[in-house]
Amino acid sequence: MTELLSPEAWDAVLLSLKVATWATLASILPAIAVAAALAHGRFPGRVLLDGIVHLPLVMPPVVTGYILLVLFGRQGAIGSLLESQLGIVFAFRWTGAALAGAIMGFPLMVRAIRLSMEAIDPRLGEAAATLGSGRALRFLVITLPLMTPGILAGAILCFAKALGEFGATITFVSNIPGETRTIPSAIYAFLQVPGGGSEAAILAGAAVTIALAALFLSDIVSRRVARSLGSEDTAGREAPPR
Predict the structure, then answer these.
(1) Which of 28, 65, 68, 199 has the least CB density, counted as fewest CB within 10 Å?
(2) Which of 2-16, 89-103, 151-165 has the lowest mean pLDDT?
């Protein structure tokens, strides 16, 4: 692939992988917490929280990017505070591209994890509670392992969404070569110049290859996790009573 891609295009591929990876890693713990609240929580504002979480899916990505720019720009309410207190800058940086990718992929991850949580038989937790297990222990020992396939599926969806995000990213962090130019932004840039179609086609093929590889890896890991959980469950059922 290095022979097919120009240095500029190769930089866009590496940056996209970096952005998508950080966007996914930063989303996992918040997604688990929000999914747990939506799946089992009973509190005022639950419907509102559900709507806010899924809002990026129904809003134009450019609107999401504009909101991020207003909030996390250097003059924004959050962005100015982060820069002055912690020295963290999101606007027109690759970190802003990761933030935009995380925001756009977050609803997909939450939904996958929530569906996985809701599919767990509640009687397992009830049985563990009768044996004296606390809520935190039940979550770590029962819920978390059983929802692992959902976490993996959500992570892959978030990664793919962050990898291909364009509207929110270009609005929030622009299209700066070597800094914020991801694969979609690079394809857009190549299509604006004569003779850039071939480079754009190669980049599109690279994006498809990366996405398919991620899905293939996710399927392998999910199958192994499911097989491992099934083996443990079978061993538990076949264990002789003490």
Answers:
(1) 28
(2) 2-16
Phi-psi label, residue 120: left if phi above 0, alpha if psi -120 to 50, beta otherwise: beta
How far is it, in rounded angstroms, from Cα 117 to Cα 39? 7
Task: State pLDDT tens for residues 30-53.
Answer: 999 999 899 888 888 889 999 999
Structure tokens at 131: 């044996």
169-185: pLDDT as tens digits: 999 999 998 889 999 99
